[in-house]
C-alpha cells in the first residue's frame, strides 16, 4: 500500500481554500486505497494535539512557535518542519513526500528527501512571491520578490516531480527552463460529496436578509484586494439603474473587509449591499441557495493571470450562474457564453453592463447551469482529478533512490528486531 506524507503550511480544522483542496486530495487518495497523513508547519494557526485526526484524516503538528524577523523566522520554520518530517520518516515511514506550496514546505521536505532518498513531489498552488503581491505584503520586482522567485525555481529543480494547479503556472515554470516532462497539472476540482446536491432556496434566510423578491448577485470567499470587490461595489449604482430588483450579497472576510464595508456604506445604493461576514463551512450552501449569479471580479495582475481559483467551480457545482473577469485564471475554467460569462477586468461600468445583460436574458439560464454542472462532474471532479497523481507516484517509486531507501529501511527494521 502506497503511503503518502503531505507536507503542509496549515490544514483542517482551519478553513481556507488551501485546506479544502488538501482535504479533497487526501480523501480521494484514501478512497483509492492509499494510506495518507499530513504534517503542518509552524504556520498552522490553531492549537491542538500533536497528532490530530480531523474528518478521518491524520495531521501531525510541528511543535514550536515562529519567532524573529524575516528571513531568520522563515529559516527557523524550515528547520523545525524538516526535523518533524525526519521524525515521521523514521516512525511513519512514508513512501512519498508530497509538499504543498509555499516554498518553505518544499525546502524542508528536500532536506529529508535527499538524506533518506525518499521521492519528493512538490505541488505549487501559487508562487509565493506573487501571492505576497496579491495580498499586499510584497512588491513585484523587489529584492525580496526576486530572492523568493530564485528559491522557488531552486526548489522546483531539486524536486523529483512537480505538480501545478493550472496551465498558467506550468507555462511559467517552462519559461524558467524547467523540463516540461517533470511537470504535471493537477487542476482545481470540486469534492462532490460536499457540493453534490444543489440546495433548495432557503426562504427563511432570504427573509432575514431582506432578499425575498430580489435578484441576487453574490460573492462567497476571502476579501483580498485582488478579488476586486471594490469594482463590484462601485458597479452597483449602475447595475441598480439597469436592474431595479438587484441586491449584492457578500459572504466572507479578510484584510479588505473594513475598507469595503466603508465603501459600501458610502454608496448611493448602500441598502442594496449586504455584508454577512464569515459563516461556518456547513452553512455556506444556505447562502449559495439565495444567489442567482456568483460574481468574481478579480483584478488583472500576474497572480490572477497565472492561477485558477476554486470558487467558480464550487458555484457551478451548486448550479449557480457564474460571471467573472476576463483574466487568464478564469479563462482556464470558464467558457464565455457556455459555462459562464466573462467581463472586462478593472472596469465597473463593463461589469455592471455584463451582469445587467445576464439578468435580462433568462431564457438560457437553465441550460447554462446544466452544462456548467456537467463540466464539473466530468472534468473537475476531485475523484477523477486525483488519478493524475498515480502515474507520477509510480514513476517516482520505481526510481533507484527509492529502492535504496527501502533497503536501508528493511535493514534498520531487521536490526531492531534482532536487538
UniProtKB/TrEMBL annotation:
MF terms in GO: hexosyltransferase activity
UniProt keyword annotation of Transferase present: yes
Domain Glycosyltransferase subfamily 4-like N-terminal: 17-189
Signal peptide: none
Keyword list, A-Z: Transferase
Matching InterPro entries: Glyco_trans_4-like_N, Glycosyltransferase_grp1, PEP-CTERM/XrtA_GlycosylTrfase
CDD domains for this protein: GT4_WbuB-like
Protein's recorded name: Glycosyltransferase, exosortase A system-associated
Amino acid at each position: 500500500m502506497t503511503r503518502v506524507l503531505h507536507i503542509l503550511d496549515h490544514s483542517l480544522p482551519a478553513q481556507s481554500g488551501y485546506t479544502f483542496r488538501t482535504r479533497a486530495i487526501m480523501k480521494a487518495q484514501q478512497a483509492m486505497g492509499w494510506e495518507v497523513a499530513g504534517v503542518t508547519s509552524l504556520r498552522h494557526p490553531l492549537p491542538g494535539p500533536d497528532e490530530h485526526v480531523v474528518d478521518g484524516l491524520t495531521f501531525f503538528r510541528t511543535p514550536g512557535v515562529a519567532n524573529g524577523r524575516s528571513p531568520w523566522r522563515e529559516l527557523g520554520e524550515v528547520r523545525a518542519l524538516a526535523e518533524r518530517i525526519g521524525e515521521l520518516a523514521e516512525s511513519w515511514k512514508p513512501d512519498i513526500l508530497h509538499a504543498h506550496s509555499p516554498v518553505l514546505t518544499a525546502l524542508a521536505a528536500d532536506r529529508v528527501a535527499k538524506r533518506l532518498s525518499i521521492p519528493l513531489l512538490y505541488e505549487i498552488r501559487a508562487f509565493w512571491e506573487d501571492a505576497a503581491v496579491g495580498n499586499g505584503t510584497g512588491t513585484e520586482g523587489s529584492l525580496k520578490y526576486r530572492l523568493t522567485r530564485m528559491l522557488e525555481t531552486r526548489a522546483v529543480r531539486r524536486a523529483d516531480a512537480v505538480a501545478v494547479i493550472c496551465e498558467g503556472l506550468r507555462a511559467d515554470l517552462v519559461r524558467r527552463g524547467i523540463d516540461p516532462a517533470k511537470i504535471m497539472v493537477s487542476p482545481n476540482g470540486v469534492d462532490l460529496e460536499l457540493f453534490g446536491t444543489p440546495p433548495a432556496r432557503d426562504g427563511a434566510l432570504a427573509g432575514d436578509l431582506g432578499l425575498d423578491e430580489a435578484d441576487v448577485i453574490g460573492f462567497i470567499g476571502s476579501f483580498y484586494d485582488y478579488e476586486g470587490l471594490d469594482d463590484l461595489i462601485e458597479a452597483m449604482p449602475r447595475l441598480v439603474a439597469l436592474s431595479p430588483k438587484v441586491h449584492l450579497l457578500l459572504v466572507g472576510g479578510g484584510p479588505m473587509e473594513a475598507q469595503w464595508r466603508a465603501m459600501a456604506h458610502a454608496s448611493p445604493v448602500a441598502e442594496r449591499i449586504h455584508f454577512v461576514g464569515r459563516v461556518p463551512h456547513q452553512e455556506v450552501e444556505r447562502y449559495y441557495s439565495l444567489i442567482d449569479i456568483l460574481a468574481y471580479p478579480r483584478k488583472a495582475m500576474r497572480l490572477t493571470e497565472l492561477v485558477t481559483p476554486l470558487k467558480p467551480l464550487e458555484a457551478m457545482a451548486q448550479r449557480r450562474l457564474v460571471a467573472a473577469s476576463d483574466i487568464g485564471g478564469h479563462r482556464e475554467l470558464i467558457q464565455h457564453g457556455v459555462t459562464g460569462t466573462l467581463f472586462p477586468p478593472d472596469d465597473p461600468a463593463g461589469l455592471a453592463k455584463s451582469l445587467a445583460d445576464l439578468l435580462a436574458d433568462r431564457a438560457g439560464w437553465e441550460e447554462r447551469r446544466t452544462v456548467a454542472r456537467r463540466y464539473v462532474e466530468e472534468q473537475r471532479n476531485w475523484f477523477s482529478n486525483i488519478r493524475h497523481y498515480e502515474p507520477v507516484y509510480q514513476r517516482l517509486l520505481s526510481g533507484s533512490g527509492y529502492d535504496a531507501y527501502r533497503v536501508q529501511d528493511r535493514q534498520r527494521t531487521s536490526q531492531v528486531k534482532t536487538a
